[in-house]
C-alpha cells in the first residue's frame, strides 16, 4: 500500500476515488458483456457528461471558498435560450453568439457576485433567488418553446475530431492528441524535477516518478485507442473540458488567486488579516461559476440540437455531488479540480452503467443519492471516531510535503507568515 501511495502521490482521497472509478468500470464491463468500453459508449460518456464536469470545475472553486451555487442550471438554460434565439431569430453567426452567451453568463455572475461579496447576503440565498429568476427568464424569453440551433453550432457539443492522414484503422488525430498529452505530462514532470534538484530540494525516487508517468500514459493512450478505433474521433466537448482542467488546475495550484480562494474558504478572518481581499475572491468565484454555467449550457444545447424550457433542471445537484464525491469539504477550504473531475466521472460511469443494465431512472436516482451520502458519511464517521478523515489525510499529506511553504496566501505577501498564528488566534477568540 505504501508503494501504491508513493506512485499516486500519497493523496488518499484521490487514490480511493480512482480505485472506485476503476472498480465501477470493471464491474459494468463485466455485467454488460463488454458494452461499457466500446468506442461509441466511451464517446457517449464524455459527450453526455462534459457539461456536468464543466460545472463541477466552477463549483469546486465555489465550495472551496465556502459557498454553494444553486443557480447554475437556470443560468445555463437562460444563456442557452438567448444564444439559440440570437442565431435563429437575430441572425448572429454562431461564433458571435457563443461570445454573446459568455458575456450574458458573466453579467449573471457579476449580479450574484455583487450580492454575495459586497452586500453580504449568503450565497445559498442569492443563488436560490437566481435559480428562480433565471429559470423564469428562460421561459419568458423563449415562451416555453424549443428553439433549434444550426449544424455549425452543434460542433461544440456533438462534434468530434475528423479523419486525417493514412488509413490506419484508427482516428489518427485522436492518437496524436493522446501522444501529445503524454509527452506534455512527461516533459512537465521532468522540468519540475530538474527545478527541485537545482535548488537542492528533496525529490522522489526516479522509479516512482517513471512508474507514475508510465501508468498515466498507459491510461491516456488506452482511452484514446478505444475512442480512435470507433467511427468518431475524440469529442470536441472533451477537448474543451481538458483545456479547462489544465487552466483551472494551474489557477488553483500555482496562481496567487488560487491560494487566496483556499485561504478564504479555510478561515476568512485570518485570510483578511494577512492581506487577502476576500470580497474580490468571493466575487470572482461567483462570476466565474456563472461563466462556466453559460458554457455548459451552450455545450448541452449544441449536443441536443435545440434549447428547451426544461434544460438545466437538477444540474446544480449533479455538479455539487461530483465535487463532494471528489473530496471537497462541506465547510470549505479543501478540494481539487482533478478530484471534482474524478468524482464527476464516478457518477457518469455509474449512471451510464445502470442505464446499460436497464435499471430505471427511479432506482438510478436512489443509487446515486446513496453513493453521495456514503461518500460524505464515511468522512464524518472517521472524524467522529478520532481517526484521520479522508480530507484530513489529504491536507496532512500536503502539509508533510511542504511544511515551510505558506500555501494559504501569496508567498510574496509580507503578512503571509502570520497566517497560521492568525488563524489560531481567530479560532480561539471565536
Spatial arrangement of strands, main beta sheet: 1-2
- Spans where pLDDT lies below 50 across 5 or more residues: 387-430
DSSP summary: helix tally: 18
Number of strands: 2
Which sheet architecture does the biggest sheet show? 2 strands, antiparallel
Q: Which whole number gives the mean pLDDT?
A: 85
Q: How many separate domains?
A: 1
The termini sit apart by: 40 Å
Please state the second-level CATH architecture. Orthogonal Bundle
Residue share in helix? over 70%
Structural class: mainly alpha
Task: Write the CATH fold name.
Answer: ABC transporter involved in vitamin B12 uptake, BtuC
The value of Rg in angstroms is 22 Å
- The CATH class name reads Mainly Alpha
Order of helices and strands: HHHHHHEHHHHHHHEHHHHH
Shape: globular
How much strand?
under 5%
For this entry, what is the oligomeric state of its chains?
single chain
Write up what this structure looks like.
By secondary structure, the chain is mainly alpha-helical. The chain has a single domain, classed as Orthogonal Bundle (ABC transporter involved in vitamin B12 uptake, BtuC). The protein is built from 18 helices and 2 strands. It has helices at about 1-10, 10-30, 40-65, 70-90, 95-120, 125-140, 155-160, 170-200, 205-230, 235-255, 255-265, 270-275, 280-305, 315-325, 335-355, 360-385, 390-400, 420-430; strands at about 145-150, 305. Helix 3 runs antiparallel to helix 13. It is globular. The model is unreliable at about 385-430 (pLDDT under 50).
